[in-house]
Amino acid sequence: MLRIKKLYIFVFKQFALLFIGTFFIALFVLMMQFVWQYIDTLIGKGLTLDVLGQFFWYMSLMMVPQALPLAILLSSLITFGNLGESSELTAIKAAGISLMQTLKPLAFVVLLIACGSFYFQNNIGPMANDKMAQLLMAMKQKNPELEIPEGVFYDGIPQCNIYVQKKDLDRGMLYGIMIYRMTGSYEDAAIILADSGSLQSTAEKKHLLLNLYSGEWFENMRSQELANSASVPYRRETFWQKTIVLDFDSDINLDNGVMGQRAQAKSLLKINHDVDSLNHQYDSIGRVYYIEGKRMYFDLPGFNRNDSLRALKDAKTVVFDTLYQRLNVDKRRAAVNAAHNRAQQMATELEYKSLITEDGDRWIRQHKIEAINKFTLSLSCLIFFFIGAPLGAIIRRGGLGVPIIVSVLVFIVFYILDNMGFRMARSGIWTVWFGKTLATAVLAPLAVFVTYKANNDSAVFNLDAYRDLMMRMFGLRRKRTVMGKEVIINDPDYVTDRERLVRMNDDVVAYAHDHNLKSPPNIIKVFFKYKPDNEMARIDEEMEVVIEDLSNTRDKAILTQLSKYPFVTVKAHTRPFERKWLNILSFIVVPVGAFFYLRMWRFRLRLYRDLQSIRQTNNRIIKRIDKIVNRPDPPKEKED
């Protein structure tokens, strides 16, 4: 019989309640951001409650895959933050249960959520996206008289382009109206100018009534008898008031499949099938264009390809300038005009073909992006869990303060990387797989790093450790400060310290002479034949011992000189890494090897200056010790 540990049940209950709450909060936030984008489409359209209900329902279904990763990140961070803040996580570790064992049941649950997210995106999401696109299209077409902007042409009404100079929303009047109306072709187009007018919908919302005042009507009269004639008759009408009926069906119908060809409205199986079909279709178009391009240069009037190639083959040298000069003026002009027209025709045709091929490439990229997006969003659930749970165990802060800040920062990084990769992949600047996997590829190492640190109880947010690492990497160092002690138990041994300083001076001079620190390092010895150099480490250790002993003095002059000792780097001037194979690898990678070589040279020169500073400081302290040792003791005061 399968038995579930009480610890797993306890952790799952803590996580489940928070996950449900954070999921609906994240879903609400994403829905509000989506509503804000389409606020102009919803306001002032007279939409019924059932239509608004459908809008919010389909919108919520579309936002579920985006809300799941954020909810998992926030809920896991709060869960383990609460366990750490109440010392329950410490008790769990004291019982011999590691963090990875504690994460095991929740990791399984999150894996099920990720699988459910993939199923949702593959089956329910496309349907919701299709219905949502149809609903938005229908909303934009409802009551178009409210959408006509000022100063630009509006094409939201079928077969019409309307320009309005000014609108009066209180009276419902339009001023400075210009209408281009086409019912069939350009031959029977009409241009209507009016001083003012109003646009109203009929009761059944099937037509629009356009009431125009004080205007003119220009319309071409199409005639079959004059089809081949350059002149087309037209009529002109001046009116004071005229009503035009425009066909316009604004009923909201969600049963058609007009928007079903978009990549967002397809499952993974449908996307793969359509990508194969699109590749086959545009490959065929490309082959046809290739054949036409080969023939394009040999289709000139009166041009015989075989005869021309034979003539060019028989001729030793063909000088086109000479042939052009033999023609008279009229033929020259005709030849130039023919070449110019031919070039323009070829350029126009190539531009048209490039638009078709670019549309095909963009259409294929959109399908591939949507296919990869189904996997990356599901994988992000696992990545966010292994970021949130370890961070909660490290921060050990529950509630809605620090966890929300950390979650928002992580999600912003993910959103920026994912959106940037999507735009680059959609435009063809980056490959599709690179653009869509950029966010997960960046956050996955972060999840591994944070999980490793949390499992080993490492201090991830120790700023001093990161500061010391950066200072060592860039060769920066702190300034030594030695302060006098208020209570001194043991006085310094001046005689022994003086002997050490004298011996240290001899060692410093010998080391600088033997290693020739001013010269550049030997490449072979550094990267391939390195031998350990412990002399500088010994000198530094002896210097620190003297500084520690002399810091017990009350003499301010010695304390001042002790602060002038530099912090010496004992290994950075010898080799890049401790391991030999890393040194060889850094040499093979040329830019890296050059960086470390110049860095070592810089540390050698700095060490030379440090040794000089140490020697000068030693001499000053030696002189001061001599004065202290040879100074007679002050006379003691007599007791009363």
Which terms would index this structure?
disordered C terminus; 6 strands; 640 residues; six-stranded antiparallel β-sheet; alpha+beta; 9% strand; 62% helix
Characterization of this structure:
The chain is 62% helix and 9% strand. The radius of gyration is 41 Å and the shape is elongated. The longest helix is centred in the middle third of the chain and has 67 residues, at 329-395. It is α+β, with helices and mostly antiparallel strands.
Short characterization:
Helices cover 62% and strands 9% of the residues.
Describe the protein's topology.
Blueprint: H1 6-37, H2 39-42, H3 49-85, H4 88-94, H5 99-140, E1 153-154, E2 160-168, E3 173-181, E4 190-201, E5 207-220, E6 234-247, H6 268-296, H7 305-314, H8 320-326, H9 329-395, H10 402-427, H11 432-436, H12 438-455, H13 463-473, H14 494-515, H15 523-527, H16 535-550, H17 556-562, H18 580-588, H19 590-630
Antiparallel strand pairs: 1-2, 2-3, 3-4, 4-5, 5-6
